Amino acid sequence: MKRRNFVRLSSAAGLLGMLPAFGESNRQAVAAGEYAETTVAEIQKRMKAGQLTSAALTKYYLDEIARIDKAGPKLNSIIELNPDAMRIASALDKERKAGKLRGPLHGIPILLKDNIDTADQMKTTAGSLALADNASSKDAFMVNRLREAGVVILGKTNLSEWANFRSTRSSSGWSSRGGQTKNPYVLDRSPCGSSSGSAVAVAANLCAVAVGTETNGSIACPASMNGVVGIKPTVGLVSRSGIIPISITQDTAGPFGRTVADAATLLGAMAGQDPADPPYHKAPLPLPTDYTQFLDPNGLKGKRIGVEKTMLKVHEGIDPLLSKALEQLKAAGAEIIEVEYMKTQRLPGAESLVLQYEFKDGVNRYLTTSNAKIKSLEGLIAFNTANRAKVMPHFGQELFESSQAKGDLDSKEYKEALEKIHGVANSLNELFDKNKLDALCGPSTGPSWCIDLVNGDFWTGYGSYGPAALSGFPSVTLPMGLLNGLPLGISFLGKAFREPELISIAYAYEQVSKNRVAPGFKKSVGA
Predict the structure, then answer these.
(1) Is 10 a member of any domain?
(2) Could you give the CA distance from residue 33 to residue 290 in angstroms, rounded to a whole number?
(3) pLDDT for 136-187, tens place per residue?
C-alpha cells in the first residue's frame, strides 16, 4: 500500500479512532499502567500463553502515550505515531496463531529516534522543520532487521534537534518540530540528549524498548538521567545506513530498555554487518546473534574493573552512590583497580574539528539521496535563516555555519585531527592490557539540570562515557541510584566488540543493586 493512499494522523486518539476492528484479539481490555515495568520476556510468556496479543499491547501503549505523553505530565517524548502500528500488530498476531514465531521480539512494540529512516507513512526529520517533508522510500538497514525480527514500530521519538549538532547553546531534548521533551522524574529537569525521547519513553513505560543513536554521550547521558539501561555498541556493530549522520567515525545506533536483558534482546536484533557501511573497527567473526546468552548473574566473579579515580571524591551526593556501587561490585566478586582513563579524551579541539568536517560531508551525502526538498547543508542554513522565528526561537546554528565553512575529508586539518582521535583507541587498549582489565567504569553524568531555553544546557561534570565515544568502543549505562529524586547512572566501558563481557558485568551488577525505580512525574525537586 503506497504512502499517498493514507491519511497521516498525529494523535493516539485519532489513530485508534480511524482503525478498523481486528477481531477478538484486539478487544482485550488492558487497564492503564497494567504493563508498567513489564519485561520483554514476560510479555512473550503472556503472548505464548494466550493471555495477551500484540494488537492489545500496541493499543495499550498508544493509550499510555495519549494519557501520559500528550496529556497528563505531557512529557513530549513522541514526535510522531505510526498509523500502521495496529495493522502490523494484527498481522504478527496472525503469524503467531499460524505457528510462525520470528524470535524474542515478535509482536513487541518499540519506538525509533526521529533520525532513522523508515519506509512508511512517518517522516524522518532529525526534529527539524527543514526536513518536515522527508518521507523515506527505504528503511534504514537496521530498521529492516528489526522488521524481520517482528517488532511493531509504534512511532518516532523527539530528540535534540539534529542530534544536538546545530548550536553550542542548545537545550537537550528540544527540537523545532517536536518542542521540549521533559524528564519524567522531575518535569522541569533536562532529559539529556540527543536521544531524549527514546530514553524518556522507555522510562515512562510508553513502549517496551526503544532505539537511540550516539555520537558522544547521546545514549549514555539520557539513559543515566532517565533511569534506564542504554547500550552504546562498538562503532560498526550496528549499521548506520539510513540514519541521518553526524560522524562516520563515532556514530552508532543502540538500544534502550528498563532492564539489561531487554536492551540486550534489542541489540541482538539490531546488530548486523552492512557492506554499504564499512566498520570503524574490524569485527571478529562470527558475531553473536543473541546477546541474552551473556546475562550471567555471576558475571562479576573474577572480573578486574578499572574505576576513574578522579571521580571518587567530587560531589557530596554522588560520592556515596559510587562508593556503594563499587562495594557491590566487590561483593559480587570483582576486583576494583583505580586508574585514570578520562585523560585519554583530552584532545583540545580535535573532536570538534572531526565532527564538523564529517557532519558536512555526511549530511550532504544523506540529503542528496533523500526525498527531502533541501539537498545540502547550505540549503539547511538558508531555510533556518528564512524561518528563524519557528526554527531558531531559542538558539542559533553556529555549528551548521562553522561546518559549512570546512573543506572536504581530504583536508590536512581534518586528517591531523582524525589521527589524534584514532590515538584514543590505542591509549585505551594499552590501559586495558597494562592493568589486565575487563572493563572500566565511572558515573555516567552528574545530576540533571533545570531546562533552560535561554542559556542552554548546564553540564554537571563526569561524562565517563566520553573515551568510549572517541575510541568507538562500547559502553553500557544503567541506574546507579537516585539523588533528590533524580536518577544517576554508572557506565561500563570495554574494548571493541566486547559487548558480551559488558552485558555480563552490567547484568550481574543490576541483579545485586536493583536500582531501577519508575518515575514519579514530580513538577520539581522536593515537590
Answers:
(1) no
(2) 30
(3) 999 999 999 999 999 999 999 999 999 999 999 999 999 999 999 999 999 9
Q: Does the residue 244 lie in any domain?
A: yes
Read off the C-alpha cell for 479. Answer: 541506574
* Residues 323, 313: Cα–Cα separation, whole Å: 9
Instruction: Determine whether 113 is an active site residue.
Output: yes
What order of strands is seen across the sheet that includes strand 335-339?
A: 78-81, 152-157, 109-113, 209-214, 252-257, 229-232, 475-483, 486-493, 439-443, 304-308, 335-339
- Segment holding 441, helix H or strand E: strand 439-443
What is the domain count for the chain? 1
- Tell me the three cell numbers of residue 68: 501520559
Q: What CA–CA distance (Å, rounded) separates 153 from 277?
A: 23
Q: Which three cell numbers stand for residue 16?
A: 485508534
Closest CA to 238 of 208, 292, 277: 277
Calculate ∠ Cα 376-378-384, nearest 5°: 105
Of the candidates 194, 475, 504, 513, the residue annotated as catalytic is 194
Q: Which of 59, 113, 232, 360 is catalytic?
A: 113
Is the Cβ–Cβ distance between 140 and 118 less than 8 Å?
Answer: yes
Q: Quick one: three-class SS letters along 145-209?
A: HHHHCCCEEEEEECCCHHHHCCCCCCCCCEECCCEECCCCCECCECCCCCCHHHHHHHHCCCCCE
| Under 8 Å between Cβ of 45 and 79 | no
Catalytic residue flag (residue 514): no
**392 is written with which cell numbers?**
531558531
To the query of whether residue 232 is one of the catalytic residues in this protein, the response is no
Q: How far apart are CA 469 and CA 234, in angstroms?
A: 9
Active-site entry in 54, 175, 195, 218: 218
Structural domain includes residue 23? no
Domain that holds residue 138: 74-81+101-272+281-513
> Does 58 reside within a domain?
no
Does the pLDDT at position 14 exceed 90? no
- The rounded radius of gyration (Å) of the Cα atoms in the chain is 22
**Nearest to 111, CA basis, from 231, 180, 36, 205:** 205
The predicted-structure confidence for 190-248, as pLDDT tens digits, reads as follows 999 999 999 999 999 999 999 999 999 999 999 999 999 999 999 999 999 999 999 99
Rounding to the nearest 10 degrees, give the CA dihedral for residues 292, 294, 297, 299: -160
Specify whether the CB–CB gap between 482 and 458 falls below 8 A.
no
Q: What is the pTM of this model?
A: 0.95
CATH number at residue 127: 3.90.1300.10
Mean pLDDT of 483-492: 98
Cα dihedral 307, 312, 314, 317, rounded to 10, equals 110
